[in-house]
Amino acid sequence: MDKFDTLISTCVPIPFQDIDTDQIIPARFLKATTREGFGENLFCDWRYDDKGNANADFVLNKDTYSGKVLVAGKNFGCGSSREHAAWAIYDYGFKVVVSSFFADIFKNNALNNGLLPVQVSDEFSEKLFDAIDADPNTEVKVDLDTQTVTLVGSDISEEFEINPYKKHCLKNGFDDIDFLLSNLDKVKAYESDSIMK
Amino acid sequence: MSKTLFDKIWDKHVVQEIENGPQVVYIDRHFIHEVTSPQAFAGLKRRGIGVFRPEQTVATADHNVPTMNQHLPIKDQLSRHQVETLVKNCDEFGVELYGLGHPYQGIVHVIGPELGITQPGMTIVCGDSHTSTHGAFGNIAFGIGTSEVEQVFATQCILQKKPKTMKIQVDGKLKNGVLSKDIVLYIISQITTGGGTGYFIEFCGSAIESLSMEARMTICNMSIEMGARGGMIAPDEITFSYLKDRKFAPKGEEWDKKLAYWKTLKTDPEAKFDKEYHFKAEDIEPMITYGTNPGMGIGITQSIPGGNGEASAGLKKSLEYMDLQGGTQLLGKKIDYVFIGSCTNSRIEDLRLVANLVKGRKKAEHVNAMIIPGSRQVEDQAKAEGIDKILAEAGFELRQPGCSACLGMNEDKVPRGKYCVSTSNRNFEGRQGPGARTMLASPLTAAAAALNGYITDVREMIED
Ligand code: SF4
Fold first, then answer.
1. Maximal C-alpha separation, chain A
2. If we measure between CA atoms, which residue out of B99, B86, B70, B132 comes closest to residue B412?
3. pTM
4. Taking 60 as the threshold, does the pLDDT of residue B450 lie above it?
5. Alpha carbon distance B438, B429 (integer Å)
6. Is A169's Cβ below 8 Å from some Cβ in B?
7. Phi-psi map region of A37: left, alpha, beta (phi>0 left; psi -120 to 50 alpha)
8. B426 and A22 in contact by Cβ < 8 A?
């Protein structure tokens, strides 16, 4: 897993609420047996029409917006638990997703893959969308250490929450399996007592 | 101290607490399927390790399989490769596989319960959000991502933050023609698709207790559609008699011992939940969705919201996709497809209900009606009861088990712009195929729509 520290970047806004993982990566692309290459089909049904032509209205097809921060509406990543959604977003080149609310499984999946979900207040989200709308070159700074997200060049800033353990993992590029494998003795001790065996 | 059922089971499974971090939770049963496992197996290979407890892991192929001619090689090359990769991985890592052609094959959330692998008091995970289905047996079951599948493979544990608890109580007697699918669609329409986020739900109350196991599974299945981590129902005599003598249920003395334990699995009367909702069964009529998330549901006789120009941007976008008008009724709306299947409603009880309704009737000519049994065992049982013949006479096609048109991944899809009344759990844009328009409903409402060719209040077709 890649390490995460601080990121300053312009943003790509998708101001819809309830973006589900079927929109992020439609099921028909889940036939792969590796993790790579899903970025090509990120938001496929919004990005391309039924003939496969780029849909000029969709934000990923506009030159106006680019960057490593995806800014989305409330309740991002709801629906299916497919981790492919997090892989697709990361594979496309995003490092951070900002939303005023994330679905649980998506949040976990993102963190397990080095993609940082930054949950902000509705007010902050609105200000951010407004700022990007007014100036597509608006940058945000995401600082994992201080757990803050700031609109660069303004005093608009907010703290976000992240579990201290996950923060530690993300900063060091460790994953959960490394941790669990180092504790197998405890698992075996647990098993010998369990009634469910 | 008084505890909820959730807390009792959870606390029993905590192996370790990480300071300021998640807990290490032990997993009793791990189900896997072809779509979310290959990258996890690849991760094990990269680390040079095996599956820690293969005997607690069960695999099947369901998402990406055809529902006709399953004896022939899968036509789509990518799908075939994915299913073959599962076969290879299970062989290499010593995992039991109920693959295509096996008498136990089926949708992972249908076969676990019917084989008695799913039991009260357990922790159960699967790389699929509808793992919540198993919670109907009074256990903690939830969907996980592929990295977490790899965690469970490697250590039989998973790192989790303990969710908050929610109680949803439904009391009273259901009206005729109203099924558990209607209860759950009703609840989601009330608390919204985000209403359960961060919570684990216990469903209770007299209306829930009166339900069969199949009907309870439908409710727990869709708890994830409220955003919840999962849903559960305390085990009772209905649970125990369902499990007794199932293939992998405990036997003899072991049964007595487990049964005694299972009977203790109840929320203490004084226990506190973080949130509670109460609903009345009498308020629920057959439900149907009009929009593009499962919370956009209405009673079958009600009108779509957003008439008089009051639609939010989200609602407008949904209605545009569905090509429906706010303020109008769905009753009488012409439909093109009916899909009866998925881990929500593809069990033998669902098929019996449908067969009862369609017996001696004929489906409307323009409707394409697919019925996909949840498992080989359901298919075999349906044939043994003559349900296949009743369905065929009514013009319904009983196919072979799999996820089918629940998700637009395998061969079964709903074409662009077509309306499909579906017993599955998700009506997202493109879920049943690019441009497909899904309306979620119960098996009875779906079957009634197939017979008439338009959205129908099934209560008009059945006797009180
Ligand atoms: S039937 Fe549908 S919801 Fe259920 S496991 Fe299969 S794809 Fe998922």
1. 62
2. B70
3. 0.91
4. yes
5. 8
6. no
7. left
8. yes
